[in-house]
Design brief:
This protein is an alpha/beta fold. The protein contains five helices and 13 strands. The protein starts with 8 loop residues before the first strand and ends with a helix.
Length: 233
């Protein structure tokens, strides 16, 4: 009996050049288990040398899981841009929005960049009017504990927000030197959009290691991976 044909191939990238999340290894394990469950290939790397035209052509989607800082040089960035323009996909998890601030193309692909966050707290999630799969196990009345990123302004137009956090259910106030956070009003935490010939999905959830064992989050994450890889919802 032959091996089952895989649906798509993913590159999971976790390089950091800044804060290193404890949850990275939990996230890697979770994505590998999602690959087993949903029959896709995943390769985990932290070597930016993998970002060449020839190597990236092997994949359908690139996942930045809790990456931070400046992690790709100009030629590697060019390879990733070519990858997306070929109709491929990108998934950013949590601190993927705390990555490559000076790379304008990347910031537009992510959609919004991290500004500041208060201490990890329990809050309540809110649905938006945009329908997207993978949200079925979330309940607006259920408490959710995570690190609630406050974001800067939109870097591009056309972001489809699918999940938000209710700022009335946690303390939004925080200050790091001159950097101050007081909340956003409408506070999105997940979105998707078509970008530069390809697709991008981002979720700000994923700071707490145990989140990567939560069925609601795993359902949410896979829906984003599938959309980015296949263009289907």
């Amino acid at each position: 009996m032959g091996l089952a044909q895989k649906q798509f191939r993913a590159l999971l990238f976790t390089k950091t050049n800044g804060f290193h999340h404890e949850s990275i290894h939990d996230g890697v394990t979770a994505v590998k288990e999602l690959a087993d469950r949903h029959v896709f290939d995943v390769e985990w790397h932290e070597d930016p040398g993998r970002f060449t035209d020839n190597n990236l052509a092997r994949y359908d989607v690139i996942i930045f899981l809790n990456t931070t800082g400046d992690i790709l040089n100009e030629s590697q960035q060019a390879a990733m841009e070519k990858f997306i323009r070929a109709g491929k996909g990108f998934v950013g998890v949590h601190s993927a929005s705390d990555t490559e601030y000076e790379w304008e193309w990347y910031t537009k692909m992510v959609g919004r960049m991290f500004k500041i966050h208060p201490p990890t707290q329990t809050a309540q999630l809110r649905f938006t009017t945009n329908k997207f799969p993978g949200l079925e196990l979330f309940r607006e009345s259920n408490p959710w504990t995570d690190e609630w990123y406050e974001f800067g302004p939109e870097k591009t137009t056309g972001l489809n927000y699918i999940l938000a956090v209710d700022e009335n259910t946690y303390n939004t106030k925080v200050q790091w030197g001159q950097n101050k956070g007081e909340g956003m009003g409408f506070h999105p935490v997940a979105w998707y959009h078509e970008y530069d010939g390809g697709r991008a999905f981002y979720t700000a959830l994923g700071h707490v290691p145990a989140v990567y064992r939560d069925p609601a989050f795993l359902n949410h994450l896979y829906a984003g991976i599938y959309y980015a890889a296949k263009g289907k919802k």
